[in-house]
Each structure stands twice: as structure tokens, then as C-alpha cells.
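Preliminary data (for renewal application), pyridoxal-5'-phosphate complex.
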Amino acid sequence: MSRFDESLAPALQQAAESALRYRRELHGGPQCAAEDYAAQLARWDTGPLPAQGLAAQDVIRQLEAHAAPGLHATAGGRFFGWVTGGSHPVGVAADWLTSAWGQNGANLLGAPAAAASEAVAARWLLQLLGLPGDCSVGFASGATMANFIGLAAARSALLARVGWDVEADGLFGAPPVTVLIGEEGHATVYAALQFLGLGQRRVRRVRARADGGIDNGDFERALAEADGPVLAILQAGHLHTGAFDDFTRLIPRAHERGAWVHVDGAFGLWARACPSKAALAAGVERADSWATDGHKWLQLPYDSGFAIVRDAEAHRRAMTAAASYLPAAAAHERDPTHYVPELSRRARGFAAWALLRHLGTDGVAAMVERHCALARQLAELLARERGVTVLNDVVLNQVLVRFGDEAGAGRGGEEADALAAAVIERVQRDGVCFAGGTRWQGRWVMRLSVIGFSTDADDIRRSAEAISSAWRAVRPGG
Ligand SMILES: Cc1ncc(COP(=O)(O)O)c(C=O)c1O
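Predicted structure:
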């Protein structure tokens, strides 16, 4: 006889219907949430937790009603804010099952299916990204954690080489590690250094090229000046411009110096999965560790990231927690927990396996190719508008836009900053598409990231038109 409480079944069905309804309406609707945080908080905050519970269906209904006005269309075709993947339905379906199955993805005896799906998804991922097949892969919550894990493995290996056991003895009295990182490195990589006791400030910041990539000459100078063990951090895909560091030249140089090279490739590493774009990241396969996201270009639902390490032993040493009650995997087996900080954790392998299997290598390549072409198209359409300037060479999927003529820029840039802010505000209010802003080379500019799986040429045309008309509405003189 079933022990399942059938009165709960409608809650699951209701959630599925609600999700379908949401996805069906997403395309035509506004891409920006109707309510901001303050309005949402007022809606959610109905007082202390009542003593009486609420029936399953009622609570799911209320959840949907509360959340609906506060949801950005991040899974929609015209959402270009931050770098936001589209939460592909196949990933979502696999993720629902992951929750329904309730597996604890910690280890292979406790969750054999979860561990096996991760092991295979890890192999496919290395194949797709053209990285050495014997690297270890940790399934993390995102690129922030993946960077943390890669840098922890680096710290372990570099200090072990000079006779220091950082896992046992920590950093007190340890030989100093010189960290080289570009001044345009992502804030979360600096944060990972902070978490690891390597410090945000004590790094050697390497100068950036005009496109945000690391300056080769300054990197080589920093290498030559460095003392002791060296950790060099490079980037595949600059957050704003999509620019790549010169891996072909810099990784061998760093290795000649005995450095460990870590690459933050949160979205840019996916260029490797697309034959026509792979040259952008040529030579990156020689690095020692890499971080990338599943919830960006692969379109997995949040949260998903991958930490990839060439020296699997260092990776494992940096992350493993052992206890007598935890079953130990055999030497040839892969325990998911040994490659991430957490023990109990979401079984992320199911959704990764399902989406990789659904898209295949051709599907991922075509998607990356399409997004890059659409980003270029968006840039071209915007650049036709008088007073609109695309600031970056659109090598990948990121587009930076300035509003106002050079005269405005000449007045200290404040006028151009204000115009960009006004256009962004208007675009978000109109809701046809969602664009964000950022500070680039001292100026406030619009920033567009074309990365949602459902974006097509029509979305790009509509979005370019919406941005152009917002600009016409706010520009001086109309
Ligand atoms: C280049 C880069 N590195 C790291 C991150 C952090 O990734 P996550 O937000 O998945 O932790 C991002 C996020 O946009 C990124 O673009």
C-alpha cells in the first residue's frame, strides 16, 4: 500500500501547471518585474509565522501570487541583464525530479545514481570544453564557488611543492604565495582570494588592455618580479566586453616560472564548445584549473557551476572531509563530495547530464554561435542610431553601449553617464527588453549580454528598437 499522502499530489501538479503557464506567457510579457524589492517585501511580509499551517494547494497558489509581480523574465528571450542563462525546460524538468527524488548528492554509496550521473556529466563536460579528460570536476553552486575551489587546489599544490601542508597547518607561518590577477578580474575571484586567506589587497594587480583583457607585458613583468610560489589568474570572457586573455602566450610563460594558472571562464570558456569561436580561447587547455558556470551558457537552472582541476589529487586534498561514518569510495571511484566544500548537497549531476544529453555537442555549439551572431546584430542595429556608440569589439556575446555625442563625453562624462542611466531606466520601465548598466572605463554605460537560449532574431530587432526609442525619448533636444 502506498504511504504517499495523495492529498499532496495536487500541489505537485499545480506547480507544474503554474510553471507551464509562466513559461508560455513569458515571451509576450514585460521582461522587467512589475514590483521592486520594497513592494515585494510588503506583499510577502504578512506578520509572524501563524500557528496554523496552510493546505498544500493553497500555499502553492499563494506562493505563485506573491512571486508573480516580482519576477524578472530572466528565462525570456529579451532579458540581457548581467550574464543570465535561460533555465532550459529540460534542465528544469530534471531539476524537479532531482527535488522529488530527494537524493543527498554527497557520496556514491548514499546516492549511487546522483554520483554516476555526475561522473558521466563531468566526462562530457571535459569533452565539450576540450579540456584534458583526466581532470577532476567539482559540481558547485556557480563560478564564484568554482573559482574558490580551483584556487584552493592551487594553494594546496603550490604550498605542498615548498613543503607546506596548508590543509593541516593553515596559512600561519606559510611561505607567501604571489598572486597575479588582472585589474579587470571579476569581483568574485577577488572574493575567493579573500575566503582563502590569500587576500584581496596583497595580490599583484596586472594592468588591463583597452578591452579589459590582461596586458601581456605587465603580466610578464609581474612574473619576472615574483618571489616564491606563484598563482597566476587569467580570464576567458571579460564580464563586460567578452575579451579573452592571451592564453597561448601567457600560460607557457607562467609555467616556465613554475606558476599554477587558474582561469575564470564563467561564460567565456563555452567558446571552446563552438568550433567557430574556439580560437578565442586557444591554449586555455594548458591551464591548471578552470571555473565555469552551468547556469550561464549551458542554460541549467540555478544554481550550477563547475570547478575543473588538472591535478585531481590536489583538488581532492583541498576539498575532502573524511569521517568514520562516511563510506569511503574506492581509489578508482569518484565521490562527488571530494571535489566541493559541501557534504550534503543537491544532486547537480542529474540536470547537467540531462541538458548535455539533450543538446549534444552540436546543440551547444549552435547555441553559442547563434548568441554571438545575435549580439553582433544587436550591436549593428544600435550603432545605426545617431548618438549611440557601441564601445566594444563584439567578439562574443557582450555589448557595451554609450549614449550621447563626444561633446557630452567631453564635459567630464557626467552628461553621458546621466543619459545612459535615463535610457536604462526607460528601457526597464517599457519592459520590451531588460538591459542593465555598468561603469566602464570611468563612465556609466548600458551593458547587454545575449545568452538566453530562447533569444532569436525577432527578439533582437524588437529590443534594438525599444532601446533606440528610449534613447530618442531622453536625448537632449528629443
Ligand atoms: C567572469 C565571471 N566570473 C565569475 C562570475 C561569478 O559567477 P556566479 O555568479 O555564477 O558565482 C561571473 C558572473 O557573472 C562572471 O561573469
